[in-house]
Amino acid sequence: MIDGIRFKFLLNQKIVYGLYILLAVVAAVKQYLHHSFNNYLIFKYTFWHLIDLKPLYFNSPLNPYFDCNHYGPAFTLFIAPFAILPDWTGTVLWNVANVLVLLWGIFSLPLKTNTKIIIAYICAHEALTSLFSYQFNVALTGSILLSFSYIIRKENFKSAFFIAFGTMVKLYGIVALAFFFFTKDKLKFILYGLFCLALLFFVPMLFSSPQYILNTYHEWYISLVEKNNSNTSLDSFQDISLMGFVRRVAHNKAIPNWPMLMGGLTLFILPYIRIDQYKEVGYRLMLLASTLIFTVIFSTGSESPTYIIAFVGIAIWFVIQPKKNWFVITLLILAFLITSLSPTDIVPKDVRYFIRIYSLKALPCVMVWFFIIYQMLTINFKKELSMQKLNQEFAKDL
């Protein structure tokens, strides 16, 4: 009886929000007190550099931080409310804002509330990893989820806005175009998207100048190309991807990305041939999970804090499984142990180094992704009983 009460207590949306806000605050305060908030300073000064018409992608020795910014000019709009605050306040509120967007996205999904709460719990530790680095990936994940939820609810403008926002901030957001075929008003959706892109392109000019923004987009492109080249070294903290795993196991940084990218893209697109399944909520959620994982495991820019994106995909995949058999549970356990826990002090230092140097953090996510593709090609989402229940739950939600 007591255990039942405790379990019911945990399955409370307010408890989840409280937990995530607590994680955000603790991570922010801890890093701030240890003077370890370099990422936040990079983000903060993008706004002030915009105002002062300074380069966004050049690391001057005069800057109070090291490394370079790699986010688009539109990002300056999102960070602006925090940049004007003292750092001790800005760091905390920045983390809190990120988790609120993530939870907004999770609780927008067409699933029962208890199921969405379980997703949030599964992802909590991976979110904490990103929060220690003040990563925007937490909010970016939420924006991808929102673009999905709004498009299947036929709120095309909202969906188009979040796709445009994610794209203009970090390019990753463009992957939400994978959900384009779920809308009937495709022309209207495209027009909304173009309007949102234009809006996010021109608004930063109000704080700077048109020529400055045009130059900045060119510099952004150059910075991304340079970053991609540096990521593929065999000892970097980036390239925690399928390509990085292959290069590092082979000890050959010359292995190109394109064969694996083309193979991955082909597999990603293959389930689209099942047009008759498009209307099924189970199929749509599987595609969402596939998209979130694909975004990370096929990116040379993926680092440990990026995996909040993929881990939400794994959590969604797990909760909608028709049968949670030993194979499915084993994949989830491997993902939690190797992907989520590997950067922590729970894992011995030598093991952590081994996992990082061979990009093994990506491996469970790769395994889950291949299984998702198999399921999307073989499951009849119309006839599968558990998937029919998802459709019924979504119909009630609407």
From TrEMBL:
Its family? Belongs to the glycosyltransferase 87 family.
> The organism's lineage?
Bacteria, Pseudomonadati, Bacteroidota, Sphingobacteriia, Sphingobacteriales
UniProt keyword list:
Cell membrane, Membrane, Transferase, Transmembrane, Transmembrane helix
**Which InterPro entries does the record match to this protein?**
GT87
**Pfam families in alphabetical order:** GT87
- GO cellular component terms, semicolon-separated: plasma membrane
This chain belongs to which protein, by name? DUF2029 domain-containing protein
Residue ranges of the TM segments = 15-33, 92-111, 131-153, 159-182, 189-207, 255-274, 281-298, 304-320, 327-347, 353-377
Q: Name one GO molecular function term.
A: hexosyltransferase activity
Instruction: Please state where this protein is localized.
Output: Cell membrane
This protein's membrane topology, according to the annotation, is: Multi-pass membrane protein
Q: What is its main location?
A: membrane
Q: Where does the source fall among the domains of life?
A: Bacteria
